(Fe-S)-binding protein (Acidianus brierleyi), 378 residues
Amino acid sequence: MMSWEIAVNRAINNNVPRVYKVLREYPYIIELAKELRETKLKVLNNIDYYIDQTLKSVEKIGGKGYFVSTPEEAREIVGKIVGEGKTVVMGKSMVAYEAGIREYLIRKGNEVWETDLGEFLIQIGNQPPSHIIAPAIHLTKEETEKLLKDKIGGVNENSTHEDLVKRVREFLREKFIKADIGITGANSVAADTGTVALVENEGNIRFSTVAPQVHIAITGVDKIVPTLHDAMIEVMVQAAYAGIYPPTYINLTSGPSSTADIEMKRVNPAHGPKEFHLILLDNGRLKANKDPVLREALLCIRCGRCHFHCPVYRVMGVNWGDPPFTGPTGAMWSYIVNGDTKPALYCTHSGGCKEVCPMKINIPRILEYIKWKNNDKK
Ligand code: SF4
C-alpha cells in the first residue's frame, strides 16, 4: 500500500462512523439538509437577483462587495487591497486556491501563511490539496512529522499527534499577531445582511477574520443563500456531514468591526478589522447554472462526505481531479471551473456518493453527462 492509501484509509475509518453517529444524535440535521437543498435551488433560479442583493447588503454594512468573472479579476482586486510587503494569513479557502491568490501575493512580495493546519502542511510541503475539507489527508502522521521536522523543526520521531499540532500552533501564533491582512473563504453568504458565515474547529479563521486590520472573504456565487437564517443552516449542515458536530466555532462577519457604546451611535472600526471586502467569483458557475444537469453541482456544500463512500477515490485518492477539486464532487467541479472532462471519465457509477450527499446531488448522472461532453469533443 502507498503511504497516501494508508493515510486515506485511516481518515475514512475515523470519519465515516463519526458522521453516522452525528446524524443519529442530532436527527434534525437531516431535515435541515432537505430544507437547505430547496433554499439553494431557489437562489439558483434567481441568481442574478441574489448576487445584486448580496453586494448591496455588503455596502450597507460598511464593507465593499465585488462580483468578478475570472480568477485574474479576483487576483487583481486582492492585489490592490493587499499591496506589497505585507503579512497575510489565510483561512482555508478553495476559491482562493482556485484563483491562485496565495502564489500571486507571494510573487508580489508579501509574506503569506496558510493557517488551517492541513493547508499549512501542504503549503510548506509544496503539494496540492487532496481532499476538500482535509487538504493534507494523504499525509500519514509519520510523514507529517518528517515534513515539520524538515521545514520548521521542533518535532522528532517520538512526537505525538498532540506534539505536532502544538508545534504548528506555536509557529503560526506569531503570524496571526503580526498579520496585516486576513483572507478567508465563506461557507455561506447571506444576501439579506451581507454576512459571511464560516465554520471551523481550529480557531484559525477566528484569528484571521479578527486580528488583522483588513479582512477579505473570497468565495463563489454558489455560496449565496437568501438570509442569515439560511446561512446558519448551511454551516450547521456542512459541519455535521463533515463529521465534526457541534463545530468548535461558527464565525459570522457582517462588515468591519463596530461599536455603539457611545450614545448607541454605531461607528466603525472598533477592535477588529477596519475594512471588510467580499469578492464573489463566477468562473464557470453561472454558465453551469444555465445547464439543467450541471446546475445541481452548484448545490454542493463541500462537506467532503462523497469522497469517503467512493471506490474510485479510495483507489486514486490524491490523483483524482484538478486541485482543489478532488473526489466525486471535484470531478464535477473540475469540469465546471476548468472545462476538464478527464476526472469524470474515472467514475464507475457506484452511486454511493449520491446516497450519502446531504444535498442529494445526483453526482453519477452529472459525471455521465460530462462523459458525453467528452465524447462530443472528439
Ligand atoms: S457533492 Fe454532496 S457529499 Fe460531496 S462534498 Fe458536495 S455536498 Fe458533500
About this structure: Residues 3-25 form the longest helix (23 residues). The mean pLDDT is 95.
